[in-house]
Design goal:
The chain is of the alpha/beta class. Helix content is 33%, strand content 20%. A five-stranded parallel β-sheet has the order 6-5-1-7-8, sandwiched between helices. The model has no long low-confidence stretch (mean pLDDT 96).
Amino acid sequence: MIRLIVLDADRTIWDHHNVTELRGPFKLVSKDVAEDTNGVKVRLNDKLIDFLEFARKKGILVSLASWNEPKNVFELLSLFGIDKYFVFPVAEPHPNKYQMIQKIISNLSKIGTDISPDEILYIDDRDIHLSEIRERIGNVKFLKFGLDIKDWQEAINRIDKDI
């Protein structure tokens, strides 16, 4: 059973490939599109909020492990109004996603929520971190955004079948 879903940000939560390279402050253009000071747009991927609401209703915790400078990631999460869905989100300027996931697990443990690797679903648009995550953390479940699941509605359908 899945108790924790860890999401990547770039090309997973939103369509932009690297929000670290953008210049804040950001402004909201519409409910699912933000723009940096140079006019570069960041769009939430379709049905993301439905997915986050689905996880919340199912009692599944959602967190974030993002290889980015944290400032832009957290500003965008807040601007889109989705920061409230994430428990102990981590954005750091290095590729060691396993360290970020370890921090999330450790923080959850500190509040009395112990999560085992087989209860974690990791969703990312790339699988380059997966072998190291599984080596360091354990056999987490994985869905590749854009391949295993085309959008967040498909993620809802897949997870709903597995629970």
